């Protein structure tokens, strides 16, 4: 588990530190206080073998442009996404000699740095004395790389991704990494899933189900769905999604299964949460706006499920919310556990460029909820 986290020069974080992290961590704060950026930092740090994960995070934010290759006839023959990386840096500038750092020092030390570097040949040119030109004039932006350096258990690895002259990266640059030999990366592989407010596709859920079906974890999925509909007895995924298939559930007393989609967005959200949780055993579940689609009366049961699974499967959870109902439900579920210390609430508070984390222990959170003290 992560017990502490340092974030430097990443998005809204200039120099941020949080410690005392628990097994289940609920993050609150005003808009633009850094909640989602903190989730991204956790995701990038704990996935020590996945540089391409950065593109997934940029995708979630919509920070890319689609480039089309078109024949003279007007036919589109190829599509390519280009990602502008300047905005991942605190300065929002594309320039060398600026670094992003993610670190966790306690328990199991991990670190990741991202920087804009130059090819050695270009660095040599910069110091050439017989050209009679300034350093600025000699910079060739084609020669920039985005450099990933991972350190885990005192082992380090480096991976360079080429950056185009406009400060963008092509998606195919990362696709080449997937074809690289495994020795390029650290052997450390930590399971994690990052859920946003958007829906996971049928194909993504079906891939998770393939890892769950016919295992004891399947029972946890049924229990999760029964939070919203106690009559659910079974669930199944068909080979493809049509009007009458896809994700089907069997209800007690009903002769035929019905599509999960007919039972509302909340049912699909709780299914996604439960499937993600049981899939990342010994890893991390990262959820933005965890209460999305769930009625407030069901959120205490949702949190009870998350707390139970996190302990049983050794999962660390990071989640965000803006909802007072979600905070209240979190506190109530913690109060019902044998060890309430497994969960904490952290409020991210911003003043100018500085962001700090204010910790609420279960006892402090109980007082805040009981007295309706604003913590968001």
Features:
single chain, alpha+beta, 6-stranded antiparallel β-sheet, 6-stranded mixed β-sheet, 30% helix, 30% strand, globular
How would you sum up this structure, described in words?
The protein has helices at about 35-45, 55-60, 120-125, 135-140, 170-180, 200-210, 215-230, 265-280, 300-310, 325-335, 360-370; strands at about 5-10, 15-20, 25-30, 65-70, 75-85, 100-105, 110-120, 145-150, 155-160, 170, 190-195, 230-235, 245-250, 260, 285, 315-320, 345-350, 355-360. The chain is of the alpha+beta class and about 375 residues long. It has a domain at about 50-190. The two termini are about 25 Å apart. The model is unreliable at about 120-140 and about 180-190 (pLDDT under 50).
Low-confidence runs: 121-141, 179-188
Q: Helix- and strand-based class?
A: alpha+beta
**Mean of residue pLDDT?**
87
Task: Estimate the global geometry from the Cα principal axes.
Answer: globular
Query: What does the radius of gyration come to?
Result: 23 Å
Q: Number of DSSP helices? A: 11
User: Widest sheet: strand order?
Assistant: 2-1-6-7-8-9
Terminal-residue CA separation: 25 Å
How many beta-strand segments? 18
How much helix, percentage-wise, in residues?
Answer: 25-40%
What about the largest sheet?
A: 6 strands, antiparallel
Order of helices and strands: EEEHHEEEEHHEEEHEHHEEEHEHEHEEH
